[in-house]
Every structure is written in C-alpha cells, then in structure tokens.
C-alpha cells in the first residue's frame, strides 16, 4: 500500500480578502492538471483529480500561490500525532531534471524579508514522513558588508568531495565517483577563479560587480 500520494494541481484563481482596506486573507482555487506536459499527463492518469479551495489567513503565506502556476499536493494518512513541519518561512520544492526525489525532497526559500534573487535557506525532508533531516542557511550578502552569516557554496562542495574521497579509498571506489570528484574539483576551481578576479578588481566581498 502506498504511504503517500502526490498529485499535481494548477492555480485557477486567487481572490484577496480585505477588511478596512487591510488584506486579511486569500481564497485559493486549484484544479488538477490534465495537459501541458508529459508529466502533467502522467499525473492526470495515475493520481487524484478534482478541485481544491483553500482560505489563507497567514500573512507570511500571502502571494505564494499565483494564478496559472503549478503545484504539487502530497497526501499522507493522519496518525493523530502532531508533527512539526512548519519551517517558519514560505518554501517551495526544488525541482531539477538532473536530481531525483526518490528518498528526500529539497525545499528552498528565504527566511529574510530582504529583496534577493537567490534562495538562501534550504531544508531536506524525508519523502515518506516529511521529517526535516537537515537545514542549511547560505551566506546572505557580501561578507564585508553583512559579515559572515551562513555557509558558502564551497563548504557544501567540500563535504561532498570529502565523502566521495572516503568512498574511493575503500571497497566502494568506482569510475563514476572518480569522474564526479574531477568535476567537483573543477567546479571549485571556477568558483575560486571568480573570487580571484573580484579580488583583483577590488570588489570582492561587496555588492559591486
């Protein structure tokens, strides 16, 4: 028996609710996808269809749903136990064609209300239970202007390189790991090259380009 069912819906409407000219809620309408992509056709064939209507009164969740955008809906049985799944900020599932979500799901968002272009806060969830397995906050803003407040891209690359090097030193070594290590080292080289160039221009650690 399935432990969880994932469906895919698209937003058909967002109606804002105002009280004394202040926004106090949103009425959200969703409908199951049926076309538009091969993935949508697959969801239409194998997962629940229908419509969903929701009322949102949490200001932090306002503007999350956009008319015409598509969203995944996960259905899991309720055990009667309350599980802490609120990450404290609006997040979305990170989808990438090169990455599987067979066992874990990566969520991304921004805890800060600053106007930023990149996601800085990520969580990894158990795909079956929704349990948060770990959280990562990336450096937000230039170090010389905002101080050290999060991990760097290179920090995560170092963790993966260290793990793969350990596998390569034992019985789990393989050609694929070796190639992955080479590409990871190349990635670090190019990130280092970018930093070196910014240092030479005197703009490293600042917002200047």
Cα gyration radius (Å): 21 Å
Unreliably modeled segments: 80-86
- Per DSSP, the total helix count is 4
Distance between the termini: 54 Å
User: Strand portion, in percent?
Assistant: 25-35%
The overall pLDDT average reads 86
Describe this structure in words.
The chain is of the alpha+beta class. It folds into 3 domains: 1-76, no CATH class; 87-140, no CATH class; 152-201. The chain has 4 helices and 8 strands. It has helices at residues 38-46, 143-146, 153-168, 175-201; strands at 5-19, 22-32, 51-56, 70-75, 91-93, 104-109, 121-126, 132-137. The strands form 2 sheets. The protein has a 4-stranded antiparallel sheet. Strands 5-6-7-8 form a 4-stranded antiparallel sheet, with no helix packed on it. Helix 3 runs antiparallel to helix 4. The chain is globular. The N and C termini lie far apart (54 Å). The model is unreliable at 80-86 (pLDDT under 50).
Describe the protein's topology.
Layout (H helix, E strand, L loop, with lengths): L4 E15 L2 E11 L5 H9 L4 E6 L13 E6 L15 E3 L10 E6 L11 E6 L5 E6 L5 H4 L6 H16 L6 H27 L8
Quick tags:
8 strands, 3 domains, 4-stranded antiparallel β-sheet
Q: How is this structure best summarized?
A:
The protein is α+β, with helices and mostly antiparallel strands and 209 residues long. It has helices spanning 38-46, 143-146, 153-168, 175-201; strands at residues 5-19, 22-32, 51-56, 70-75, 91-93, 104-109, 121-126, 132-137. The strands form two sheets. A four-stranded antiparallel β-sheet has the order 3-2-1-4.
């Amino acid at each position: 028996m399935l432990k969880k069912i994932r469906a895919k819906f698209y937003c058909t409407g967002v109606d804002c609710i105002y009280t004394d000219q202040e926004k106090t809620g949103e009425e959200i309408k969703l409908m199951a996808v049926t076309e538009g992509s091969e993935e949508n056709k697959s969801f239409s064939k194998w997962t629940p269809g229908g419509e969903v209507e929701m009322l949102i009164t949490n200001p932090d969740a306002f503007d999350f749903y956009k008319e015409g955008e598509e969203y995944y809906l996960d259905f899991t049985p309720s055990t009667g136990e309350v599980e802490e799944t609120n990450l404290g900020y609006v997040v979305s599932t990170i989808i990438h064609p090169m990455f599987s979500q067979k066992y874990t799901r990566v969520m991304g968002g921004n805890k800060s209300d600053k106007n930023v272009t990149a996601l800085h806060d990520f969580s990894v969830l158990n795909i079956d239970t929704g349990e948060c397995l770990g959280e990562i906050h990336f450096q937000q803003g230039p170090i010389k202007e905002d101080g050290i407040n999060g991990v760097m891209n290179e920090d995560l690359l170092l963790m993966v390189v260290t793990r793969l090097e350990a596998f390569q030193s034992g019985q789990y070594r393989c050609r694929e790991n070796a190639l992955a290590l080479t590409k990871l080292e190349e990635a670090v080289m190019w990130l280092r090259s970018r930093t070196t160039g910014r240092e030479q221009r005197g703009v490293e650690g600042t917002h200047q380009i």
